[in-house]
Amino acid sequence: MSKKIVIAIDGFSSCGKSTLAKALAAKLEYVFIDTGAMYRAIALYFLRNNISFNDEQEIKEALNKINLRFQYNSVSEKSDMILNGENVETFIREMHVSSKVSEVAAIAAVRDFAVAQQQAMGIEKGIVMDGRDIGTVVFPNAELKIFVTADPTVRVNRRLLELQATNPSITLQEVAENLQHRDLIDSTREHSPLKQAEDALVLDNTHIDRATQFEIALNWAKERIVLS
Ligand code: DC
């Protein structure tokens, strides 16, 4: 049997990271972890419990009460996020969470909490993890690092289509503003900002379809698996 590797996929919001990560994991029979879902669930908990984003003690106590786990959903063929026993997969994708999650993800204690769990999930390798700091902080020794990018207009339109499925009244402007806001905070925050790892391979999917993107990434993965 071939050796298992760690595949780290990073990039800006809505550039197709999760779609790619999920497809790669299914093909390689690896575990897929959407780390954004973890930050979203923490943000949801903070919002529901009125946790102040500036109060270190309150944040520490809140994190002690948070239990996160993933549970496979055979309909979506993806893992749902479970927060303290409750399936919050739908809630964490709502706009009120999206508009605050970058602020929550910028808090050092929140990052330490999430990163420790992410690293534990990858101990046995055979994992495809997507996020913002996977190749730089969570798995700096990952055998394959992919930095996914796409033109901002393309990203906004893709995200709009996705969100309209559950929220038909959402506007292009709302989606564009949210993406710009998150990209700015995610890439300029003090702790683990989004940046391309030096040894990451760049995959710009502005002009290529999902199938082509998948083939390119799968070939990179196969090369690394043979070498490892
Ligand atoms: O991938 P996503 O859009 O669901 O991520 C939600 C937010 O969480 C995003 O604005 C940035 C943050 N995030 C992060 O800081 N680090 C990660 N590894 C994943 C997500």
Annotation keywords:
228 residues; alpha/beta; Rossmann fold; 5-stranded parallel β-sheet; 3-stranded antiparallel β-sheet; 50% helix; 17% strand; binds 2'-deoxycytidine-5'-monophosphate
CATH superfamily: P-loop containing nucleotide triphosphate hydrolases
Using DSSP, what is the number of strands? 8
Second-tier CATH architecture: 3-Layer(aba) Sandwich
Number of helices: 9
What's the CATH class label? Alpha Beta
Cofactors and ligands present?
2'-deoxycytidine-5'-monophosphate
Given as residue ranges, the uncertain stretches (5+ residues, pLDDT < 50) are: none
Tell me the major beta sheet: 5 strands, parallel
Descriptive overview:
With 228 residues, this protein is of the alpha/beta class. It has one domain: P-loop containing nucleotide triphosphate hydrolases (Rossmann fold), CATH 3.40.50. Helices cover 50% and strands 17% of the residues. The chain contains nine helices and eight strands. The protein has helices at 17-28, 35-48, 56-64, 95-105, 108-121, 134-138, 152-164, 172-188, 210-227, and strands at 6-11, 31-34, 68-73, 78-83, 86-87, 127-131, 144-149, 201-204. Strands 2-6-1-7-8 form a five-stranded parallel β-sheet. Strands 3-4-5 form a three-stranded antiparallel β-sheet, with helices on one face. Helix 1 crosses helix 9 (210-227), helix 2 packs across helix 4 (95-105) and helix 4 packs parallel to helix 8. The protein is globular and about 50 Å long. The model has no long low-confidence stretch (mean pLDDT 95). Bound molecules: 2'-deoxycytidine-5'-monophosphate. Residues 13, 35-36, 39-40, 101-102, 105, 131-134, 182, 186 line the site of 2'-deoxycytidine-5'-monophosphate (DC).
